Amino acid sequence: MATSGTYAFTLDLTDMIEESFERAGLELRSGYDYRTARRSIDLLMLEWQNRGLNLWTIQEGTTSITAGTSRYALDSNILDVIEVYVRTNSGDTGTQFDQMITRVSISAYAHLSNKLTQAKPLQYWLEKDPGGIAINLWPVPDSVQTYTLGYYYMQRIEDSGSPGSNEMDMPSRYLPSLVSGLAYQLSLKRPEVSERAPALKADYEEQWNLAADADREKAAFQITPGGYRFP
Questions:
Q1: In the chain, which end has fewer C-beta atoms inside a 10 angstrom radius, N or C?
Q2: Half-sphere exposure of 208 toward its Cβ, with a 13 Å CA cutoff?
Q3: pTM for this predicted structure
Q4: With contact defined as beta carbons under 8 Å apart, do 148 and 120 qualify?
Q5: Tens digits of per-residue pLDDT, 161-180?
Q6: Which pairing describes strands 102-104 and 123-129: parallel, antiparallel, or unpaired?
Q7: d(CA 38, CA 174)
Q8: Alpha carbon 51 to its chain's center
Q9: In this predicted structure, what is the pLDDT of residue 64?
Q10: Cα–Cα distance between 76 and 132 in angstroms, integer?
Q11: Which residue from 154, 159, 203, 210 is spatially nearest to 40, judged by alpha carbons?
Q12: How large is the C-alpha radius of gyration of the chain?
Protein backbone atom coordinates (compact mmCIF):
# COMPACT_ATOMS: atom_id res chain seq x y z
CA MET A 1 0.00 0.00 0.00
CA ALA A 2 1.45 3.35 -1.03
CA THR A 3 1.52 6.17 1.50
CA SER A 4 2.64 9.78 1.23
CA GLY A 5 5.67 9.39 3.49
CA THR A 6 5.20 12.98 4.68
CA TYR A 7 4.16 14.43 8.04
CA ALA A 8 3.70 18.08 7.19
CA PHE A 9 -0.09 18.60 6.96
CA THR A 10 -1.19 22.01 8.14
CA LEU A 11 -3.66 24.73 7.18
CA ASP A 12 -2.92 28.33 6.36
CA LEU A 13 -5.37 31.08 7.32
CA THR A 14 -7.34 30.86 4.08
CA ASP A 15 -7.81 27.10 4.38
CA MET A 16 -8.77 27.36 8.06
CA ILE A 17 -11.34 30.06 7.40
CA GLU A 18 -12.86 28.23 4.43
CA GLU A 19 -13.17 25.01 6.44
CA SER A 20 -14.81 26.88 9.32
CA PHE A 21 -17.30 28.59 7.03
CA GLU A 22 -18.24 25.23 5.51
CA ARG A 23 -18.76 23.65 8.94
CA ALA A 24 -21.04 26.53 9.86
CA GLY A 25 -23.06 26.04 6.66
CA LEU A 26 -21.75 29.24 5.08
CA GLU A 27 -19.59 30.32 2.15
CA LEU A 28 -16.58 32.61 2.26
CA ARG A 29 -17.53 35.22 -0.32
CA SER A 30 -16.06 38.62 0.48
CA GLY A 31 -13.12 40.43 1.96
CA TYR A 32 -15.29 41.35 4.93
CA ASP A 33 -16.00 37.67 5.58
CA TYR A 34 -12.25 37.10 5.71
CA ARG A 35 -11.61 40.08 8.01
CA THR A 36 -14.34 39.17 10.48
CA ALA A 37 -13.04 35.58 10.60
CA ARG A 38 -9.48 36.77 11.33
CA ARG A 39 -10.81 38.95 14.12
CA SER A 40 -12.59 35.96 15.64
CA ILE A 41 -9.41 33.87 15.37
CA ASP A 42 -7.41 36.46 17.33
CA LEU A 43 -10.13 36.58 19.99
CA LEU A 44 -10.05 32.78 20.18
CA MET A 45 -6.29 32.90 20.82
CA LEU A 46 -6.90 35.22 23.77
CA GLU A 47 -9.60 32.86 25.03
CA TRP A 48 -7.19 29.91 24.81
CA GLN A 49 -4.68 31.79 26.92
CA ASN A 50 -7.38 32.41 29.53
CA ARG A 51 -8.23 28.69 29.61
CA GLY A 52 -4.92 27.76 31.22
CA LEU A 53 -1.37 26.65 30.56
CA ASN A 54 -0.56 26.00 26.90
CA LEU A 55 2.69 24.06 27.02
CA TRP A 56 3.88 25.11 23.57
CA THR A 57 3.94 28.75 24.69
CA ILE A 58 6.38 28.16 27.58
CA GLN A 59 9.78 29.78 27.09
CA GLU A 60 12.81 30.45 29.28
CA GLY A 61 14.22 33.91 29.86
CA THR A 62 17.00 35.49 31.89
CA THR A 63 17.89 39.01 32.94
CA SER A 64 20.76 40.51 34.87
CA ILE A 65 20.10 41.54 38.45
CA THR A 66 21.31 44.91 39.69
CA ALA A 67 22.23 45.33 43.36
CA GLY A 68 19.69 47.52 45.12
CA THR A 69 17.01 47.09 42.42
CA SER A 70 13.96 45.00 43.31
CA ARG A 71 11.63 45.52 40.31
CA TYR A 72 12.29 44.01 36.86
CA ALA A 73 9.86 44.71 34.00
CA LEU A 74 9.44 41.87 31.49
CA ASP A 75 8.66 41.93 27.78
CA SER A 76 5.10 42.84 26.83
CA ASN A 77 4.58 39.48 25.07
CA ILE A 78 4.88 37.63 28.41
CA LEU A 79 1.49 36.69 29.88
CA ASP A 80 2.52 34.94 33.08
CA VAL A 81 5.54 33.56 34.89
CA ILE A 82 5.55 29.86 35.82
CA GLU A 83 8.80 29.42 37.77
CA VAL A 84 11.56 31.80 38.86
CA TYR A 85 15.11 31.07 40.03
CA VAL A 86 18.17 33.09 41.04
CA ARG A 87 21.44 31.93 39.49
CA THR A 88 24.84 32.61 41.01
CA ASN A 89 28.16 32.41 39.15
CA SER A 90 26.44 32.20 35.78
CA GLY A 91 28.58 30.47 33.15
CA ASP A 92 30.99 28.83 35.60
CA THR A 93 30.67 25.09 34.97
CA GLY A 94 32.01 24.27 38.40
CA THR A 95 30.10 26.68 40.65
CA GLN A 96 26.99 27.84 38.77
CA PHE A 97 24.02 27.31 41.08
CA ASP A 98 20.28 27.83 40.57
CA GLN A 99 17.98 28.40 43.54
CA MET A 100 14.21 28.43 43.02
CA ILE A 101 12.42 31.30 44.72
CA THR A 102 8.83 31.40 45.97
CA ARG A 103 5.98 33.37 44.46
CA VAL A 104 3.95 35.33 47.02
CA SER A 105 0.69 37.22 46.76
CA ILE A 106 0.33 41.00 46.78
CA SER A 107 -1.05 40.66 50.31
CA ALA A 108 2.03 38.75 51.53
CA TYR A 109 4.35 41.24 49.82
CA ALA A 110 2.45 44.20 51.32
CA HIS A 111 2.84 42.73 54.80
CA LEU A 112 6.64 42.58 54.61
CA SER A 113 7.82 44.87 57.38
CA ASN A 114 11.00 46.01 55.61
CA LYS A 115 10.87 45.90 51.84
CA LEU A 116 14.36 47.44 51.58
CA THR A 117 16.18 44.53 53.23
CA GLN A 118 19.10 43.47 51.02
CA ALA A 119 20.29 39.88 50.62
CA LYS A 120 20.00 37.06 48.10
CA PRO A 121 16.36 37.11 46.81
CA LEU A 122 14.11 34.37 48.17
CA GLN A 123 10.63 35.48 47.12
CA TYR A 124 8.92 37.42 44.36
CA TRP A 125 5.62 39.14 43.76
CA LEU A 126 4.40 39.18 40.16
CA GLU A 127 3.00 42.61 39.35
CA LYS A 128 0.47 42.59 36.49
CA ASP A 129 -0.45 45.78 34.65
CA PRO A 130 -2.43 46.24 31.40
CA GLY A 131 0.79 47.06 29.57
CA GLY A 132 2.92 44.22 30.92
CA ILE A 133 4.17 42.42 34.02
CA ALA A 134 7.11 42.84 36.37
CA ILE A 135 8.91 40.69 38.93
CA ASN A 136 9.43 42.29 42.35
CA LEU A 137 12.17 40.55 44.33
CA TRP A 138 12.55 40.25 48.09
CA PRO A 139 14.95 40.61 49.72
CA VAL A 140 16.31 43.31 47.43
CA PRO A 141 19.42 41.93 45.65
CA ASP A 142 22.68 42.75 47.43
CA SER A 143 26.18 43.18 46.00
CA VAL A 144 27.77 40.23 47.80
CA GLN A 145 27.45 38.04 44.70
CA THR A 146 26.59 38.46 41.03
CA TYR A 147 23.07 37.19 40.42
CA THR A 148 21.11 36.36 37.28
CA LEU A 149 17.33 36.15 37.31
CA GLY A 150 15.98 33.17 35.38
CA TYR A 151 12.34 32.39 34.70
CA TYR A 152 10.02 30.17 32.71
CA TYR A 153 7.15 32.12 31.26
CA MET A 154 4.00 31.74 29.19
CA GLN A 155 4.34 33.71 25.99
CA ARG A 156 1.40 35.31 24.23
CA ILE A 157 0.27 33.49 21.06
CA GLU A 158 1.16 35.44 17.94
CA ASP A 159 -1.57 37.35 16.07
CA SER A 160 -3.00 35.85 12.90
CA GLY A 161 -1.73 38.65 10.65
CA SER A 162 -3.26 39.65 7.33
CA PRO A 163 -1.70 37.42 4.60
CA GLY A 164 -3.86 34.39 3.86
CA SER A 165 -0.71 32.28 3.57
CA ASN A 166 0.11 32.78 7.27
CA GLU A 167 -0.06 29.81 9.62
CA MET A 168 -1.07 30.12 13.25
CA ASP A 169 1.46 30.04 16.08
CA MET A 170 0.42 26.67 17.49
CA PRO A 171 1.01 22.92 17.08
CA SER A 172 -0.89 21.28 14.21
CA ARG A 173 -2.79 19.05 16.65
CA TYR A 174 -4.75 22.16 17.70
CA LEU A 175 -6.08 22.78 14.18
CA PRO A 176 -9.32 20.79 14.75
CA SER A 177 -10.00 22.88 17.85
CA LEU A 178 -9.32 26.15 16.05
CA VAL A 179 -11.48 25.26 13.05
CA SER A 180 -14.33 24.11 15.31
CA GLY A 181 -14.03 27.19 17.52
CA LEU A 182 -14.09 29.53 14.55
CA ALA A 183 -17.12 27.76 13.06
CA TYR A 184 -18.92 28.27 16.38
CA GLN A 185 -17.97 31.96 16.48
CA LEU A 186 -19.21 32.44 12.91
CA SER A 187 -22.56 30.87 13.81
CA LEU A 188 -22.99 33.50 16.53
CA LYS A 189 -22.46 36.27 13.97
CA ARG A 190 -24.75 34.96 11.23
CA PRO A 191 -28.46 34.69 12.13
CA GLU A 192 -29.20 32.34 9.20
CA VAL A 193 -27.13 29.56 10.82
CA SER A 194 -27.69 30.41 14.49
CA GLU A 195 -29.55 27.11 15.02
CA ARG A 196 -26.22 25.33 14.47
CA ALA A 197 -24.53 27.16 17.35
CA PRO A 198 -25.26 24.62 20.15
CA ALA A 199 -23.93 21.69 18.10
CA LEU A 200 -20.90 23.69 16.94
CA LYS A 201 -20.13 24.75 20.50
CA ALA A 202 -20.32 21.14 21.73
CA ASP A 203 -17.95 20.07 18.95
CA TYR A 204 -15.58 22.93 19.79
CA GLU A 205 -15.44 22.01 23.48
CA GLU A 206 -14.82 18.35 22.61
CA GLN A 207 -11.98 19.23 20.24
CA TRP A 208 -10.46 21.62 22.77
CA ASN A 209 -10.56 19.02 25.54
CA LEU A 210 -8.91 16.43 23.31
CA ALA A 211 -6.09 18.80 22.35
CA ALA A 212 -5.61 20.17 25.86
CA ASP A 213 -5.46 16.67 27.35
CA ALA A 214 -2.82 15.65 24.80
CA ASP A 215 -0.84 18.80 25.62
CA ARG A 216 -0.87 18.41 29.41
CA GLU A 217 2.27 17.83 31.47
CA LYS A 218 2.80 14.07 31.83
CA ALA A 219 5.74 14.04 34.25
CA ALA A 220 5.07 11.90 37.33
CA PHE A 221 4.91 13.45 40.77
CA GLN A 222 4.06 12.31 44.29
CA ILE A 223 1.97 14.16 46.86
CA THR A 224 3.59 14.29 50.30
CA PRO A 225 2.49 16.00 53.55
CA GLY A 226 3.48 19.64 53.38
CA GLY A 227 3.86 19.87 49.60
CA TYR A 228 4.89 17.82 46.59
CA ARG A 229 8.06 16.34 45.19
CA PHE A 230 9.13 14.91 41.85
CA PRO A 231 10.55 11.38 41.93
A1: N
A2: 20
A3: 0.85
A4: no
A5: 989 999 999 999 999 999 99
A6: parallel
A7: 17
A8: 10
A9: 93
A10: 5
A11: 159
A12: 23
